[in-house]
Amino acid sequence: MERLVVEGGPPTWSGSWPEWPVHDEREVEAATRVVRSGKWWRFSYGDGSEAKGGQRSEVVRFQEAFARYSDCRYGIAAANGTVTMEIALRALGVRPGDEVIVPAYTFIATATAVLTINAVPIFVDIDPDTYNLDPRRIQEALTDKTKAIIPVHFGGQPAAMEAINELARQHGIAVLEDAAHAHGSAYRGRKCGSLAEAGSFSFQASKPITAGEGGIITTNREELAERCESLVWAGRRKGEPWFRHYELAGNARMTEIQGAILSVQLTRLDDQIAHRRANALLLDGLLEGIDGIEPCSVLPTTTAHSYHIYMLRYRPDAFSGLRKAQFVRALSAEGIAPVMEGYITPLYRNPMFLERNMWGGACPLDCPRYGRIIDYAEFAAKCPVAERACATEAVWLSQNALMAGEDETHAIARAIQKVQRRAAAIRS
Q: Within a domain: residue 357?
C-alpha cells in the first residue's frame, strides 16, 4: 500500500505552486514612473488635479477606478485595511463606550479597529455552512449600546447582507462591511463594498490585489466620504487652509507608489477570479466522493466569489480520529503547500481579550463611558460554531492554490484521499 511522505513515501505532488502576489513588468513600470516623477505622495487634498507638474495623483486615479469597480461613487484610500475600519467606524458615528457586533471567526483587526476608537467589540457566532456572521445570532447580542455591525465576507463569500441590513434598519444601527477578502465578490449582482453604508478593503500582501499594504473605504454617501477623507488627512477639510485641522485624526494617507501598483493589480482581478472560480468548481466536484471533507457552502445570493480562501470543513472521525493539525501537516508534506489550519482560536480567546490588555489596562472595558462588566471568556459558550471551526473543522487553501492548473487541483483531492487511507497508521 502507498505510504505517506510522513511515513517515508513519495509525495502526491512534487511540482511548484503559483507565487503570490502575481506581478510582472507592468507593476515595475508603474512604480518606476512614480519614482522618476519625484512625486511620491499625494500633495492634493481634493481630486488630484493640482498635482505637481500637472501629473494627476496615482492614488486619486486608483480611488476612482476601484470605487467604480465596486459599484460605489466614492473611494477613500488609506495606509492599510485596519485604519480604514477605524476611520469608517468613526465616520459612521461610533463613539467611546459604544458596542460593535463582530464575528467570532475573523482576523483580529476587525475587533481591534473597534477597540482603537475606544468602543467595545461584542462577538457573535458564525454560520456553520459559510463561516460568515450568522444573522440569526445577532439579535440576542444587541443592547442599547450597540451602534454598528461589521459583517466579514470571509474567504470572499458575501455575508447574508439582506438579513443583516434589515436587522440594522430595525434597530437604527450602522453596518460596515469588512471586505478585506472580497475584492470583486458580489451579492445578488452588487459588488461587496456597496452593500451597506460603507465597506473596508485591505491591500495587504496576501489579498486579492495588493501593494504590500494599503486599504480603501467605499461608500455611496457623499457626506460619509468627506468625513472619511478628513480623517485620513489629519482632520483637514476640503477647501480650507492646509494647516487648519478640525478634529483629532492621524495621517493615514496611501503613497503614490502604492496607488500606481494597485491600478495595475486591479486590471488583473476579474481574470484571476474567473480562474479561481473554475478551479473551485472542479475541486468541489472532486471532493464530493470523499467522506469527512466538505467545502463551505456557496449561497445562491453569491453571484461572484473572489475565493481568497477556499474553505474546507474537516471531520476527524472520517479520518480515523486524525487531529486537524495532523491532517494539515500530512497534506502539506504531500506537496499541497497552500494548505493551512487557519485560526487556532476564536478572537475572544486571544490573550489580549482574556487578560484585558488594551490601552495600558482594560480600557475601554472598564472606562466610565462603557459602564458595564464584560468577561470575554464567557463568549465560548455563545459561539459553538466558531469553537468547532478553530478546534477541529476549518481547513484553508489559500488563493494561489486555485491559481494553479487542473493537474494541481486534482492533486489536492488525491492527496486528501491518500491521507484518509493512511490516517489510522499516522494518527499517533
A: no
Q: Name the one residue in this structure whose C-alpha cell is 461589521.
A: 150
Cα 409 off chain centre by? 24
Structural domain includes residue 346: no
Domain presence at residue 134: yes
d(C-alpha 373, C-alpha 362), whole Å:
11
- By residue range, what is the domain housing residue 79? 25-266
Could you tell me if residue 232 is inside a domain? yes
Residue 120's identity, in one-letter code, is V
Q: What CATH number is given to the structural domain containing 143?
A: 3.40.640.10
Integer-rounded Cα Rg, in Å, for the chain is 22
- Which one of 39, 147, 191, 207 is the catalytic residue? 207
Number of domains making up the chain = 1
Q: Are 184 and 149 in contact (CB under 8 A)?
A: no
The whole-model pTM stands at 0.96
Task: Decide if pLDDT at 217 tops 50.
Answer: yes
Q: Could you tell me the three cell numbers for 395?
A: 481547513
CA distance 211 to 260: 9
191 is catalytic: no
**CA–CA separation, 198 and 143 (whole Å):** 22
pLDDT digits (tens, 9 = 90+) for 42-65: 766 554 444 445 678 999 999 999
